[in-house]
Amino acid sequence: MNNDKDNIMSCKNNKNKLTISVVMANYNYGKYIGEAIDAIVKQSFRPTEFIIIDDGSTDNSVSIIKKFQIEYPWIKLIQNKKNIGGHNAINIALNEATGDYIYSAASDDKILPGFIEKSMNLLSENTKAGLSCSDYIVNVGKINYKKKLNLSNKPQYYSPEESVRLFMKHDFTPIIANSTIIKRSALLEAGGYMPKHKWSCDTFAHHVVTFRYGFCYIPEVLTFVRAHAAQYGASSAKNSKLERELIRTLMDSIQTSPYRDVLMKFERTAPFSVSPWDVLMVVISNKKYHKFMSFKLLRFAILEPIIKQLSNIVLISPVIFIIYRIQNMRWRFIISLFIIVIMLILLCCDLFVSWRDEQKRKERK
Question: Which of 92, 182, 200, 319 has the fewest CB atoms within 10 Å distance of its CB?
Answer without folding.
Answer: 319
